[in-house]
Amino acid sequence: MRRRKKTYESTEINWLTTYSDMVTLLLCFFVLLYAFSNLDTQKFKSVLASFQGGSGVLNGEQSLNTVSAEESLESIKELLEDYVESENLDKEITVTLEERGIVIRFMDRVLFDPGKADIKPESNEILDFIADVLNKDEFKNKLIKVEGHADTTPVDPSDGFPTNWELSAIRATNVLRYLVENKGIEGDRISSSGYSYYRPIAPNDTKENKAKNRRVDIVILNSIYEKNEP
What we know:
CATH superfamily of the largest domain: OmpA-like domain
Number of domains: 2
Low-confidence stretches: 50-58, 60-64
CATH architecture of the largest domain: 2-Layer Sandwich
């Protein structure tokens, strides 16, 4: 009888050990789920991007550099937001952090008069501040894109532009030239594009929406997207 009792007690102890292991594993599983749910998406993508080749080995130095680069984007965003707020430009300029990087959006008539591509003199101060930020030592390796956009309203040929393609492209190019020629931005880190009305942010069905689509974006690229640039 004693031998049977010992066997029973041994079986009970083994069962409790297995149960404890299962509970511990479940706890770890839910902790991981919670951690992933609060993970910074940009930094997570940066870490994933640091896996190179088929070996599956994480390059620690590259991972740290990538994460540091994303933190520098946050720093740029804060500087620009503070400037926009201090100058009461929040209705004319927006600063957002998107997947491809920081997008500084100049709405409608901030930089240009209607149908024109010459930068308004009063907006030079804004471009000066942006250039001064991008020329800081900690940000001087960031690549920049300048993108011109228009609405569907046909241009007036007397203004010198056959279509919205030319208008949007020349506006973007003039911003690029100002940053390079007047503010010393290195030419190999900046490019410009004109998209006419083919990349709207609102339907071109009302006067208000068309005003939203007439814009120039300065994009400070995320390090992941820099690889796709010439």
